[in-house]
Amino acid sequence: MSLDRIDIEGTFNFRDIGGSPTSAGESTVEVGKVYRSDGLAQLTDKARADIRALGIRTVIDLRDIGERSKLPDALDGLDVNHIELPIFDDRFFPAKQLSIEEMKRVAEETGMDLSDRSLSRIYDLMIDHFGPRLAKAVDIIADSCEGGVIFHCSAGKDRTGVIAAFVLTLLGVGRHEILDEYSITSRHLSGGFLENIVKNFADAGISGNLAETATAAPPELMAKVLDSIDAKYGDNGVEDYLLEHGMDPMSPATLRRLLLAPADLD
Q: The Tyrosine specific protein phosphatases domain covers which part of the protein (predicted)?
C-alpha cells in the first residue's frame, strides 16, 4: 500500500491511492494513476513541475465556493482539465457565510443542520444529502484515471477520504486496507503541518474546532460510514449506494479495467 506522502511543495497530504492489494489477492491497485491531496492553493513553480512530471491531466476540486474563492488552486501553466465539483453543493461554505437565522431556515427546509461542524455530522450530511455529488466524483475519476487524476478538498481527508474509500471499495480493496489508507492522514497533518493547515482552514472561512476538523481522521469514523452503507444496501453497499445516486453503471468496471494490475505473487 502506498501510504507515504509525496513531497509536493505547498501541500501536506498529497499521495497516490495505488498500491493496495484487492481482498482476493489476485490484483493490486496501480500506482501513478490516481492521487489525492489537500488544497492546491500554495503550489510553487517546483510543485507544478512535479505535478506535470506525475502525468496528471485532471484536477477535481471538491471544495465549496467559499473555500475556492479564498484559496483558488494555483494551477497556472499546467495543462490540466480543472473541474470544480463542490461535494457540499456550495451549501456548507457558500460565497457569503450564512447567519444563524439563515442556517435555521435551511435546516427547516432541507433537514440539513449546517451549524453543526463536528466531524461525525459532516460525514452524516455528506452521505445523507450529497450522494449525487459523490457519485459524480467517482464517474469523473473513472473517466479521467487513464490520463492521471488528482482529487482534493481543503485538508484532503473528509470529502477526499470518502471518495478514496469509495473508489478503493469498488476496486475490491479490503476494509482493513481502506481504513489504514484513510487514517494515515492524521500522521501527515500533524506536527509541523498543523499550524499551517489550521491557518488554511481559517483563511478559507472554515470555523469550529479547527485542530480536529483539520487533522483528525479516526478509522472508526470511516468504518461507521461504510458499515452504515452496507447495513442499508447489502454486500455491494457502496456500489449500490452510488448507483442509487446516479453513478454511471459502467464506472466500476472502468475503474477495475484501468486501475487493477495482476498481483506480483513471487
A: 132-165
